[in-house]
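Side project, low priority. Logging it here so it doesn't get lost.
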Amino acid sequence: MKICVTSTGQDMDSAVDSRFGRCQFFVLVDEETMKYEAIPNSAANDASGAGIQAAHIVADMDAGVVITGHTGPNATQMLTAAQIRIMTGASGTVRDAVEQYKSGKLAEVSGPTAEAHAGAPDAGADGADR
């Protein structure tokens, strides 16, 4: 199975990014071989709809699981419709996140964990739209 981890960088030693729609990279990892590929998140700087576009990118990667910090309502709906499990609670590097998933230490979520537009470039420090 392919595991997608939201990341600040392009390799297994990059930090996990808690943002889904605004992460810089998606690191796609083969659960069995640990081979990986980094895909830039072309939606990261979109003015709006980043979560929806990011969900499309992940679905096109044929991932079975996404490990991230937070997903908004639209991204959550799209990922769920694509039958992609959403896992949260990872910390450290992409490698750490995959190991945490494999050892059952992450929580699966079935609903949004962030408000709409929480990571938007014009959102305030509290995550609210401004």
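Brief comment: Confidence is low (pLDDT under 50) at residues 122-130.
Revisit when time allows.
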